Amino acid sequence: QVQLVESGGGLVQAGGSLRLSCAASGRPFSNYAMGWFRQAPGKEREFVAAISWNGGITYYADSVKGRFTISRDNAKNTVHLQMNILKPEDTAVYYCAARSTRLVPPRGPREYDSWGQGTQVTVSS
Q: Which residue among 2, 27, 74, 88 has its CA within the 20 to 30 Å range from the CA of 98?
């Protein structure tokens, strides 16, 4: 079982940037596809971005494509989400997730094995 802890959330004005980080422990990190999801109040958890074991495959939700970048550093057991040109509609709790034994990173939340506790991102206008 892998444990995940997100950090880097906070309050930022529209147009600004934040860099989220997810630290993994407990199991070999390089064997996991990783994803970022977000959940706004009253909404279901939605896919944001995902990355394969070696970082060679990435997926993004249309709403964040061109603004967000997912990356990973397996040597440091971390995955990051660089968020640029933030909009108020990006406001949500952001979660990182891990899925073992998958090369292609899934985009559905039910496909992931482990989840972090979430970090709040608030974008003011």
A: 88
